[in-house]
Amino acid sequence: MDYSISEIAKIIGSDSLLPAPDSKISRLLTDSRSLTYPSDTLFFALETSSGDGHRYVKSLYDRGVRSFVVSGSFSCSDDLQDANILYVESPLAALQTLAANHRRRYNVPLIAITGSRGKTTVKEWLNQLLQADIEIVRSPRSYNSQIGVPLSVWQLDKDSAMGIFEAGISQPGEMAKLKEILKPEIGIFTNIGPAHSAGFESIEQKCREKALLLDGCRCVIYNADDPLISGCVKAVPEMIGWSRTDPEAPLYICDVVRGNGRTEFRYIYKGGQSAVLEIPFEGEHELENAIHCLAVMLLLGINQETIRRRMESLTLVGTRLEVIEGVNGCLLVHDNYTSDFNSLAPALDFMKRRITPDCKAMVIVSDLMHDADTDLEDLYRRMAELLAIAGVSRVIGIGPELMAHKGCFGPESEFFASTEEFLHKKSTSDFRGELILIKGAPEFGFGRICELLEARQHETVLEINLDAVVSNFNAFRSRIKPTTAIACMIKASGYGAGPHELARTLQAQGASYLAVAVHDEGADLRRAGITMPILVLNPTVENFHALFADRLEPEIYSFDFLRALIREAGRYGITDYPVHIKIDSGMHRLGFLKEDLSELIELLRSQDRVVPRSIFSHLCAADDPMEDDYTQQQFDYFDECCRMLLSAFPERKILRHILNSTGITRFPDHQLDMVRLGIGLYGVKTMHDGSQDDLRPVSSLNTVIISLKNWPEGTTIGYNRRGTLKRQSVIATIPVGYADGINRHLGYGNTSVMVNGVKCPTIGSICMDACMIDVTDVADVKVGDRVEIFGENIPVDDLAEVLGTIPYEVLTSVSQRVKRVYYRE
């Protein structure tokens, strides 16, 4: 599917500079960190909420890229004289135009999936169900945005017989652009819910906007039992509105029976064709997703026996990329998404961003999923090439196909016929100080490999949703001017979540600063490969050389510390070192007063060792409307101090910042040059008036039930017989206690945890390593069931309220012995 750069220039209507007009382009790039094959790559310099792609043109040029799409304001330097520069009004619009043209070039049947939930599962299940019959191209992972859809469609080529793509939107007007690119023949509307609703006036508006994708389709598949969706979907030649209540529906689902991890149901299609099917899942969402897939198979005329056999063999779609601490200083990246060639590149890209100079990258991978006509020699040759380009130094391949094609890989590679053979022959001592991507097809059971290599086996896990971090960051970014910078607080080990993955995520998202409490926290981030500016808020260090060596920018709050810093900078020959001036505008904790500034300015101007990079202060009551007069006094005081300092350094750009998470929401007129994003980044609302309802919880503390006992009324539970049962009860023991960070005051029924959608109170006292909960009201409860301590269903605010404290304390109290798992969907 190679295009010449001159052909692309014509398609997107570019006013171009083409020193090499015949250059061939086969790859599109929007993120400079994902560069793999520079020679045939075209980079689109997108301007988004997370950054400006024009900043990376020169670095990409230095890495071998020679073709760029830029906005008209881009100034092309002499350094780029042999590069193909395509000027357009909007690089994003150009990307979408090119993708729409490419879609028309390969006019194959296309299925487009929209909705609030289940898009990726329906797409992957359709691929599982249909790949034996037809060559399918589909979205990588959940590439469903204004950028992701064009990149997905670009995969279409002469061998493609069908496309299956997701389409998601975050605000009105976006779906029309995706519809123009996709032009689907079959449209699926999975469901509608509150997720990602911040950009819409109502859920009704969101539903109407999503339904625009379906206009003009030959067939639309949707849940006719949902009145909102039914009211938004417009008539097309064929409507398959499935129902579990209306026998007259085109696809009627009835006689649903669940048990033993399976669901059996009967369908009646168009009043005639009928059969009983079974899927290997019990969940309501899984049944809903399976019905959408069934409708597609019936529409395509696949026979009943084939449908029955394939439905029975469906496998769960793992959409998470997890980062887990491994044994012997290793870091594990576990990708439990589908394992085919197209899904390998995004996983390697995710891994590459975590490589540090002292950590080698290795991959444990299974045979790849593919269709029956695939040239296996070519497939595994391309796989080996991709791994080499990604910097993978060691490969462990598992499966008969990899064994048969091990000649494609380097001499350091190892191969095993099965996961069982790997587990039998390898031990944890074979892995040391490596970054390990673990990626296997479902049937290989690579979860057992993760269990072998995990550093902590504790059943209690603190899960950190990195997608929620990005969502919260962007939510606050939308509240401020594009020119206002954001400093993100990741002190106290990232509010208990662990700093490294948070820092990597925020660095990638375009945060201007990270802020830590002490020097050691900043040094730890530097060791983890974080390169962005880091502000140290309490720099009571004696080792100034380490501060300078790690490029950590200290807060200056006293003359003593400033003089010591200047003296040490002189000893090491440091000049123009950035520092941040703290003003005490009313917190009365640390900082200079207004009457100190004349002396401070004189001291700063008398030397060249340190220079002011910012001036800032801290609001002490931003969340309390009763104290707004005092807060305004803080603003006024800080403004006076800023004017004094800025007028003394007219030649320097000195950033001003005073707003915290609450201040960003309540006092937008005072955002100045930078804001500091703290607890709001972690999804904890400081305002409960609806103004922060777009925030998502980041941390979720979960465990599992390890024991179940039936006890009669009157039985006492726990130490000192403090818990007495008022009825015959089912009591579960869960392996989490005060040594894990569960405060003892949460016992005795003072809080509840969530089990299978039911809130279950604690019973008796919290023990060191365990506690007991009453699960009498949970249907079909069993050992191994997941228990949420806090997270999506149990807000951390609820625990804080019981304890008479603040969410900060609850989050930072989670013990380091609790395993942290970072994930992205």
Describe the structure.
- Helix content is 30%, strand content 24%.
- It is an alpha/beta fold and 825 residues long.
- It folds into five domains: 3-93, MurE/MurF, N-terminal domain (Udp-n-acetylmuramoylalanyl-d-glutamate--2,6- Diaminopimelate Ligase, Chain: A, domain 1, 3-Layer(aba) Sandwich), CATH 3.40.1390.10; 106-312, UDP-N-acetylmuramoyl-L-alanine:D-glutamate ligase (3-Layer(aba) Sandwich), CATH 3.40.1190; 321-455, Protein-Tyrosine Phosphatase, Chain A, CATH 3.90.190; 464-682, TIM Barrel (Alpha-Beta Barrel); 699-824, Lyase, Ornithine Decarboxylase, Chain A, domain 1 (Beta Barrel), CATH 2.40.37.10.
- The chain has a 15-stranded mixed sheet, sandwiched between helices.
- The radius of gyration is 29 Å and the shape is globular.
Going by CATH, what is the homologous superfamily of the largest domain?
A: Alanine racemase
Average pLDDT for all residues: 92
Number of domains: 5
Low-confidence stretches: none
